[in-house]
Amino acid sequence: MKILVLNGPNLNLLGTREPEIYGFETLADIETEMKTAFPDVEIDFRQSNSEADLMTWIGESRGQFDGIVINPAAFTHTSLGLCDALKAVADAVPAVEIHLSNTHKREEIRHKSLTAPACIGQIMGFQGFGYTLALRALVHHLER
C-alpha cells in the first residue's frame, strides 16, 4: 500500500509556530511516527507552501498512490482548486483531511472546510497524532 501525505502552507514551521495550538512536533517527527506505526505502508511525505504544487501532486496521484492524507492548512478555507483536484481523483485515490487543531474551536473563518467534501473523512484536534489516526482510518477504508 502506498500513501501520499500532503502538507500545506506554513506546516514547515511546525515545532516553533504557535506550539500552544499546533504542538511541539515537527513534520519530521510526524513522518517518523506514521512510518513507525505503519511499517508495511509506503509513505511519501511532502510539504509545500504552494497551492499549485499540492494540486499537481494530487493530480499525479492516480495510478501511483492508493490514498492521500492531506493537511491543506490555510488552503482548507480558501481553495476550490484543491477541492476540485481531490474530487478529480477520489474514485481511485480516496483522501482523509487532517488538522492539528480543532478548527471549530478557533476563529469562525476556520470553521468551514472547502476541501472536506472531497474527502472520505476528517480528523482534527489531536495535534501530530491526528496524522497517525488519519492513516489508520485510510488504511482501514482501503482494506475493506
Number of separate helices = 5
C-alpha Rg, in Å? Answer: 14 Å
- The percent of residues in helical segments reads 25-40%
Query: How would you describe the oligomerization state of the chains in this entry?
Result: single chain
Low-confidence spans: none
Largest sheet geometry: 5 strands, parallel
End-to-end separation:
13 Å
Strand count: 5
Describe the strand arrangement of the main beta sheet, using strand numbers: 2-1-3-4-5
The SS-based structural class is alpha/beta
Strand content: 15-25%
Order of helices and strands: EHHEHEHEEH
Morphology = globular
Instruction: Give the overall average pLDDT.
Output: 93
Describe the secondary-structure layout.
Blueprint: E1 2-7, H1 19-22, H2 27-37, E2 42-47, H3 51-59, E3 67-71, H4 80-89, E4 95-99, E5 121-124, H5 129-143
Parallel strand pairs: 1-2, 1-3, 3-4, 4-5
Summarize the structure.
With 144 residues, this protein is an alpha/beta fold.
Which terms summarize this structure?
144 residues, alpha/beta, 5-stranded parallel β-sheet, 5 helices, 34% helix
Mind explaining what this structure looks like?
- The chain has 144 residues and is of the alpha/beta class.
- The chain contains five helices and five strands, in the order βααβαβαββα.
- The protein has helices spanning 19-22, 27-37, 51-59, 80-89, 129-143, and strands spanning 2-7, 42-47, 67-71, 95-99, 121-124.
- A five-stranded parallel β-sheet has the order 2-1-3-4-5, sandwiched between helices.
- β3, α4 (80-89) and β4 (95-99) form a beta-alpha-beta unit.
- The two termini are 13 Å apart.
- The model has no long low-confidence stretch (mean pLDDT 93).
